[in-house]
Amino acid sequence: MYAEWLPDRDLAxxxxxxxxxxxxxxxxxLVVPDGCVDLIWGPDGPFVAGPDTGPAPVSVRxxxxxxxxxxxxxxxxxxxxxxxxELRDQRxxxxxxxxLPPLSEPFPEREGxxxxxxxxxxxxxxxxxxxxxxxxxxxxxRATVVARLRQTPGPDPAxxxxxAALRTGRSVGEAAWHLGFSERQLQRRSVASFGYAxxxxxRIVRFQRALKxxxxxxxxxxxxxxxGYTDQPHLSNDVKRLSGVALGQLV
Length: 251
Prior knowledge:
By secondary structure, this protein is of the alpha+beta class.
């Protein structure tokens, strides 16, 4: 069972969603690149899942629970206290990140931890199947995120424009010119904001756009043209490199 829901208004510019997954059977969950970074409490404790550049299969056992907060692409800023590229393709325990406070169980309720969070931890809990144990974890994760966002500078204000320019199918050089950057400036700002060089970021945002179109029922030839691929084989090959499976399996 997987559920996700939108954050409260004061976090909406930085956070994509809160989410929770409960393993109903042993299996493997395929995580594909989306430009996001997650703070997660899993069976082995809290950790940060950095931005992926390829498929990341996750083994899930029956009864396992994962509770997380997903940052929007380019919105992490300095929240984790390390350059984002150091988290690329990594799963890093919170205990290894000096900028984050220790999170362990059992933990006391923190003063103010549930501010703006009552809809998740209170009335909406039954609708999402979120037990009190997981709700407490999510309160702790949210309190940590709120504290870090208050203490650290915000993300690059150009981050969303960078992703948008690359999503349209422009080359890296064309995107830099469109944004008024040199290619070196675009490289530096892309790596700092997303953990990816512009070319990698371009492939990932293009892939995510194609996946969204395909899931909406758009024919694959039209998906390829709209998302900026040379042709349908280019789409198929790029999807396979990024996800490890064919587009039809993802859809």
